[in-house]
Amino acid sequence: MANTVDYAIVADIGGTNARFSRVNLNSLNLDKVAVYPCATFASLADALVHYQQEQQLSDLKHVAIAIACPVTGDSVSMTNFHWNFSVSAMQQQLGLKRLLVMNDFTAVAMSLPALTKNDKVQIGSGTVQPALPMAVLGAGTGLGVAHLISVNDQFIPLPGEGGHVDWAPQTEQEWFIQQMLRKEYGHVSPERVLSGPGLEAIYRALALHRQLDVAPLSAGEIGSLALEGTSELASATVAQFFASLGSIAGDLALTLSTFGGVYVAGGITPKLLPLMAASDFRTRFEAKGRFSAFNRQIATYIVTAPQPGLLGAAVYLKQSLAS
Fold first, then answer.
1. Separation of alpha carbons 290 and 109, rounded Å
2. Which of 249, 226, 240, 238 is nearest to 295 (CA)?
3. What is the tens place of the pLDDT at every residue in 232-286?
4. Strand, helix or coil for residue 32
5. What's the half-sphere exposure (Cβ side, CA atoms, 13 Å) at 185?
6. How many CB atoms lie within 10 A of CB 222?
7. Around Cβ 18, how many Cβ atoms within 10 Å?
8. Contacts of 192 (CB under 8 A, 6+ apart)
């Protein structure tokens, strides 16, 4: 049996589900993956202990956790769920030698250099320039955003909360959506449209805009109808989602000149991938006025790897232990 230096536990904690895995820190191979609804446990510590006991991994004392909220100090409080904890107290409580906690998109950013050609699909033109900055964004329960830079053979993630900046409408339809959401929330951020709840909000807004009397649908139902091609309203909703996604991805590319590529992760986009090529995603990514030619050079990818958050947490832990 391998010792605890060779193996660790990694976790990817979202607003809905908690994912855990064992990782071989030499090969970065993930196994013993388990996914639990967050609502099943009173705390993250309870979920971790349950995983260790269920998988008989209580001897592993190095843990890296990616979590969907800002991580700026010892105190961590989730944005879209009620879990909150002290990193140092949790480490002591569980008797861990190393507990590394990071923003979930810090982890996704750290996974980018480890992705294989089978873990991503390019959309549109553009060429990756190695060692130059990269950006990643992803829609799920919320909208995650991060950048990644390479310095002295190490990767430095730049986490941020870009999902909560101002969302700027580009068309009359988007103006209508923005006005509806402003009445509901006051401030309208990209996360209000680029997320599961955002997909549902776009559907409601387009129904209102077209004066259609339809029942609200879940994000999953909207996506399924769009993929089947059986609902024009659902298809229009997904088309609007991809257009807005392209605009925000293009903004990220400009912000840090990400010639290393812009990567779209998250739970929603890979499921809707068959509809993306015909969408306005890449057109809107490049539609930056005087800097359209600038963005045209930058490659865009959809991350199709099954667990990029777990992989990135492993990469970050491995780099942390090495240094």
1. 28
2. 249
3. 999 999 999 999 999 999 999 999 999 999 999 998 999 999 999 999 999 999 9
4. strand
5. 18
6. 24
7. 25
8. 167, 181, 185, 198, 201
- pTM strictly above 0.85: yes
- What is the full DSSP assignment across 135-200? EEEEESSSEEEEEEEEETTEEEEEEE-GGGS-----SHHHHHHHHHHHHHHSS--GGGTSSHHHHH
**Dist. CA 274–CA 267, nearest whole Å:** 14
Quote the tokens at residue 166.
Answer: 């101002």
Partners of 7 in beta bridges: 24
66, β-bridge pairs: 12, 102
Backbone φ and ψ for 186, nearest 5 degrees, come out as: 85, -80
pLDDT in tens, 277-301: 999 999 999 999 999 999 999 999 9
**Which value, in Å, is the radius of gyration of the alpha carbons in the chain?**
20
Contact 291, 254 (CB under 8 A): yes
Span 44-96, pLDDT tens digits: 999 999 999 999 999 999 999 999 888 999 999 998 899 999 999 999 999 99
